[in-house]
Amino acid sequence: MTDPAGRLATRRTETLDLIEALGHRLAGIIDASTHTTNDDEHDPEGATVAFERAQVASLLEQARAELRALDTAGERLAAGTYGTCTRCGHPIAAERLDALPAVTTCIRCADRR
Questions:
Q1: pLDDT value at position 77?
Q2: Which residues contact residue 54 at a Cβ distance below 8 angstroms, ignoring those fewer than 6 apart?
Q3: Handedness of CA 87, 71, 56, 53 (dihedral sign)
Q4: Which of 21, 24, 51, 90 is 20 to 30 A from 62, alpha carbon to alpha carbon?
Q5: Rounded CA gap, 70 and 68, in Å?
Q6: What are the boundaries of each domain within the chain?
Q7: 64: nearest Cα among 33, 26, 97, 96
Q8: How many CB atoms are located within 10 Å of the residue 109 CB?
Q9: What is the chain's Cα-based Rg?
Q10: Can you tell me whether residue 63 is helix, strand or coil?
Q11: Can you give the pLDDT of all 113 residues of the chain as single tens digits?
Q12: Quick one: which of 72, 27, 75, 73 has its CA closest to 52?
């Protein structure tokens, strides 16, 4: 098990890299579509371009949400509450924190959803 600060820092760096890559990819899709006279409605490839644009935009928003969750986890770490379930107050298993560093609930409480 990695130390909590290291775990969060590593995941945060990975997430920032992902956000940057997805941002470039989305900008490339948008840029490429502005240099064409085709419209999504009548172009056979248009639906594919629109789908790809929407998919990348959605992945980018998910990555940004993960970054916000990681920042919140960092605040919990500083406050001394990181690794404690926000529902039941019991410790969150180290394996769960290794897999999902920003998680706020233990597996038992997560299963209750």
A1: 97
A2: none
A3: positive
A4: 90
A5: 5
A6: 4-82
A7: 26
A8: 16
A9: 19
A10: helix
A11: 569 999 999 999 999 999 999 999 999 998 887 766 555 555 565 568 888 999 999 999 999 999 999 999 999 999 999 999 999 999 999 999 999 999 999 999 999 86
A12: 27
pTM value is: 0.83
The residue behind tokens 């926000």 is 86
Question: Which residues, 6 or more positions from 110, have their beta carbon under 8 angstroms from its beta carbon?
Answer: 103
Give dist(CA 34, CA 29) in Å, integer: 9
Amino acid sitting at position 92: I
Q: What ranges in 1-113 are assigned the alpha helix state H? A: 4-34, 46-79, 94-99, 107-111
Q: What does the alpha-carbon distance between residue 26 and residue 55 come to, in Å, rounded to a whole number?
A: 9
